[in-house]
Specification:
The chain has 299 residues and is an alpha+beta fold. The protein folds into two domains: 114 residues, Nucleoside Triphosphate Pyrophosphohydrolase, CATH 3.90.79; 140 residues, Nucleoside Triphosphate Pyrophosphohydrolase (Alpha-Beta Complex), CATH 3.90.79.10. It is built from six helices and 16 strands. The protein has a four-stranded mixed beta sheet with strand order 4-1-6-5, sandwiched between helices. Strand 14 and strand 15 form a beta hairpin. The longest helix has 19 residues. The radius of gyration is 21 Å and the shape is globular. The model has no long low-confidence stretch (mean pLDDT 96).
């Protein structure tokens, strides 16, 4: 059987910041660190202030003399606390993770991914899922408490599988969603359903999207994907290229088998943002899909 691994750690999986979970409920420690704390402002489009290709952090004290309601504590970096806050508008140049991802250093990527995912959760968790009452952020933004029952809820992360399907030889299956321009292809992905194992999800999603049966499902790695608050769980699986496609759920407009040579040529061209008139364009480097395809192409 063809064996391959991710070509490297996914760009959004670089974890170097101390999350300092023990400080989240330590009011005195957080107040003490506030004066020197850094602040990341994130708008509703997931954009942050930038200077060129670097994230611009402000000063937490610009919000007030002590930790402010609505701000979320991201951890400690180089001895300083780091917080994030949602803003309705930005001033000056901004960029999001899709544009910045491959250019960020590990700490910037780590902080930005956490900030975007956590603030996205708060935007949609203003009312308790248990009793419908308004909820308030606690634990420095890492939980919310119902104002009526006191029920505590924690940040939600939606698991999704992403699977590179190959023929155990020289071909890989790639597909295009209806909203994607022609020539833009990627591997298949889908959300995990309630009561479902990851391996079962792989088999179901591939069958639903392209009608193929897979075997030899194997885990490769994972990546946070804060769009809005998911984690991508990467797998490889084998399918028969002679089995006909059946697009059952309407999520795929086109699918085809590509050779290693074709994939290698596409990787050399760049990614979806490339202006070249190439027959195949692949995802950019911030997606775990890129590392999966690189790993397979070089196996």
């Amino acid at each position: 059987m063809t064996r391959f691994e991710l070509s490297g750690t996914p760009l959004l999986s670089r974890t170097v910041v101390d999350r300092a979970e023990e400080l989240r409920s330590d009011v005195d420690a957080l107040r003490g660190g506030w004066a020197q704390a850094r602040l990341l402002r994130v708008d509703r489009r997931g954009q942050v202030p930038v200077d060129g290709d670097s994230v611009v952090f402000g000063k937490a004290v610009e919000l007030g003399p002590e930790p402010q309601p609505g701000a979320v504590f991201l951890g400690v970096r180089e001895g300083r606390h780091v917080w994030a806050v949602r803003v309705l508008a930005q001033t000056g140049p901004v960029a999001d993770l899709r544009r910045l991802g491959e250019k960020l250093d590990s700490a910037e990527a780590d902080l930005m991914v956490s900030a975007v995912a956590l603030l996205n959760w708060h935007d949609q968790a203003g009312f308790s899922a248990i009793d419908g009452s308004a909820s308030e952020p606690t634990m420095s933004g890492w939980s919310r408490i119902s104002t009526v029952s006191g029920h505590e809820e924690f940040p939600r992360t939606d698991p999704a599988i992403i699977c590179l399907v190959h023929d155990d030889g020289d071909r890989v299956l790639l597909a295009r969603q209806p909203t994607w321009p022609e020539r833009r292809f990627s591997v298949l992905a889908g959300f995990v359903e309630a009561g479902e194992s990851l391996e079962s999800c792989v088999a179901r999603e591939i069958r639903e999207e392209v009608g193929l049966d897979v075997r030899d499902v194997r885990y490769l790695g994972s990546q946070p994907w804060p769009f809005p608050r998911s984690v991508m769980l990467g797998f490889a699986a084998v399918a028969d290229p002679e089995q006909p496609f059946e697009f059952q759920d309407g999520e795929i407009a086109e699918a085809a088998w590509f050779t290693r040579g074709q994939v290698r040529a596409a990787l050399e061209v760049g990614d979806w943002a490339s202006s070249e008139d190439a027959p195949l364009l692949l995802p950019g480097s911030i997606s775990i899909a890129r590392g999966m395809l690189e790993g397979w192409a070089n196996a």
